[in-house]
DNA sequence: CCTTGCATGTAATGGGTTACATGATTTA
DNA sequence: TAAATCATGTAACCCATTACATGCAAGG
């Protein structure tokens, strides 16, 4: 149940936000951390309100509802941070394909890995560029946002290097071993 | 819909398997790639059969059903491998917590990262030990299984190093800057 | 006045997790 | 004969995705 804490966490950090505000945050700052659709956000706001963890603090134009965390909500966020230990995701579509790459011709398998390496390289460069562009403030979201961005950069870099290594491994296996052949 | 292709892929590679066989494979060889519960496996076998991608090739003791891929099934696996491009997961519970770590006292936040680094180090070492122990064959699952295992090792290594870096960053911010103080 | 953006909600469908439920075979 | 293992299946519930549906407000 992490969506709940993502929504709650943003409301606490921003000290009040509407569903619409949250959607934008999910699209931008949480994009590489936790995704959510519009209908999930509004649904979760309703549930959090029903459970007394947030409340409507103000209503604005166009039916805008500004939510703020209650004391119970802040307690719950803290409890989640301290007590609950997340288990890393155990599902990866890219790796799943690699697992079955033996079903393709070796050349196609290698092409898949080359392709993957290129994509990962682009994403790494994209995040690296972001790191250069953004001017970071002294607030919490800046500091911790910077940490997660660096994580993303390292993640893509790792994947790129791994894909290149894997491609080379396949090449090594595809080619007849030449070592013993000649001095 | 990747579970479908995970099940189908295993049946193709093994050239026949029961639901029970598949469960064990999900627990062991696919553990770091794609997880599935027992009820998912049996449910998916029923759907794949209904769609004509696999069929019951033999029945054994205790109601055991050995499934084998049909031609349509092999075609579908290939199509999935070649045509469909997976998008990397965009959800990570560990990172989500880091994003909100500003809600804790700095010392607690740093403890969380130190803890995380230790856990990741253990998991990295566990996979490294596995790599040493296992004697690899020349078959496809060995070759490609070795690639995904190495991915896992690099993944945990990256996370460990990142957590250590992040912890140091927090320390840097928590401590008053001493640089300008003295020569 | 028309377009863009702000703003919220619901319904249908599918996938995933947990728990329940049952029974046959092998091995100690 | 008792325990472990093999073996399959169903039901309830929750979470996520996609699509549908509506309407106000501000700016050009």
TrEMBL record, chains A, B:
Domain Transcription regulator PadR N-terminal as annotated: residue spans = 7-78
Q: Which InterPro entries match?
A: Tscrpt_reg_PadR_C, Tscrpt_reg_PadR_N, WH-like_DNA-bd_sf, WH_DNA-bd_sf
Q: Which residues form the Transcription regulator PadR C-terminal domain?
A: 91-170
Q: What is this protein called?
A: PadR family transcriptional regulator
Q: What organism does the UniProt record list as the source?
A: Nonomuraea rhodomycinica
Q: Highest lineage ranks of the organism?
A: Bacteria, Bacillati, Actinomycetota, Actinomycetes, Streptosporangiales
């Amino acid at each position: 149940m992490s969506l709940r804490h993502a929504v709650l966490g943003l409301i606490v950090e921003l000290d009040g936000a509407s569903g619409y505000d949250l959607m934008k945050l999910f699209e931008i700052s949480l994009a590489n951390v936790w995704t959510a659709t519009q209908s999930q956000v509004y649904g979760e706001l309703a549930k959090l309100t029903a459970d007394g963890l947030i409340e409507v603090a103000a209503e604005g134009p166009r039916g805008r509802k500004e939510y703020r965390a209650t004391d119970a909500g802040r307690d719950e966020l803290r409890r989640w941070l301290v007590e609950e230990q997340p288990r890393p995701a155990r599902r990866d579509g890219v790796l799943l394909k690699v697992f079955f790459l033996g079903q393709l011709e070796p050349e196609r398998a290698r092409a898949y890995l080359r392709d993957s390496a290129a994509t990962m390289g682009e994403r790494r460069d994209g995040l690296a560029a972001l790191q250069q562009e953004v001017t970071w403030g002294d607030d919490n979201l800046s500091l911790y946002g910077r940490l997660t961005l660096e994580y993303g950069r390292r993640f893509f870099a790792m994947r790129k290097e791994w894909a290149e290594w894997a491609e080379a491994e396949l090449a090594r296996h595809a080619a007849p071993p030449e070592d013993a052949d000649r001095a």
